[in-house]
Amino acid sequence: MDDKLMLMIPGPTPVPEQVLLAMTKHPIGHRSGDFSKIMAEVTENLKWLHQTQNDVLILAASGTGAMEAGIINFLSPGDRVLALHNGKFGERWVEVAKAYGLNVDTVSAPWGEALDPEQVRQKLEADTQKEIKAVILTHSETSTGVINDLETINRHVKAHGALIMVDAVTSLGAANVPIDAWGLDVVASGSQKGYMIPPGLAFVSVSAKAWEAYKTATLPKFYLDLGKYRKDAAKNSTPFTPPVNLFFGLQAALRMLKAEGLENIFARHQRLMNATRAAVQALNLPLFAAEGISSPAITAVAPTQVEAEQVRSVMRKRFDIALAGGQDHLKGKIFRIGHLGFVGDRDLLSAIAALEATLQELGYENFTPGAGVTAAAKAIAKS
Known about the structure:
Layout: E1 6-8, H1 17-23, H2 33-50, E2 55-59, H3 63-73, E3 80-85, H4 88-99, E4 103-108, H5 117-126, E5 132-138, E6 140-141, E7 146-147, H6 150-160, E8 163-167, H7 179-182, E9 186-190, E10 202-206, H8 208-214, H9 226-233, H10 244-260, H11 262-282, E11 298-301, H12 308-319, E12 321-325, E13 335-338, H13 345-361, H14 371-382
Parallel strand pairs: 1-12, 3-4, 3-5, 5-8, 8-9
Antiparallel strand pairs: 2-10, 6-7, 9-10, 11-13, 12-13
Helix pairs in contact: 1-10, 2-10, 5-6, 11-14, 12-13, 13-14
GO molecular function: alanine-glyoxylate transaminase activity; L-serine-pyruvate transaminase activity
Cofactor: pyridoxal 5'-phosphate
GO biological process, one term: glycine biosynthetic process, by transamination of glyoxylate
């Protein structure tokens, strides 16, 4: 049946009908008063979602563009940075930093494990000359379904005095990221995740401390010069032509999120994570991320008695449900169930039921039929 695709991947995520309808309107002039009103509203609501009074700037880019902007606006060639990585996206920031001629030091953990805040503390305390200018990390590592202890790592960074730059692409809008309460300096995210709109917009929250660093930063920048975005945002405008219809969608999505409320948003994602993990365990499939370090945005499964890519193939062809695969050396070894953004209890129960049917079709018999759905339902009812 056409037009029944269900996205259960970590991005793009499903888009609500009222957001889709908002984006179908005719474009308006991006220098018009009407657009300025939209810009003012979405900026205010972005600050609400980010739990900050800092600037939250909007770019026509992906999450990678937001992170690159964060790196290049506050640093200079040769600056020493500490990049923390335990997955594909953490490794990407190492590559970006090196591409701009930064002196990159690292703290790493194996894919599927969380970063050790103690290792970060030791590395920072060893920097007695305060040469490390920034610490760069991914909060929710999309490639593995692991969430890192940002709060503790941030405390160590604050004690050192470096800037902290956070990839919150799959955590912003899914997990609690209280920017002002924690004093986070640069936080990047993307529209196709918890924001519930299509890809194309990126967001960067910038602290006063980061703006001080901006004054002396000399890395090359033009389109991603955040100073330009800050200047124009103060006038409810943008320095370059924005994707106007995505702003219509953003306006509608932020209104929906605000109506739901922050605590309810976080509780929903936690509930979906708990239900997914309970279902996977009831099906006797190995979880890739251990209890306590699992992301509320995505769950990675590492099957041993059935092929991950076969699971994805049957789910897509038989049930029109898209799951994500493994990346790099995990390709073919894991599949990932996204449960962020416009995803609810019904969606998850449908996906788990389809997963059970898929496993049976593939000859996997190491579970009691109905066990996954039952476990998910109990977890949902419990929360």
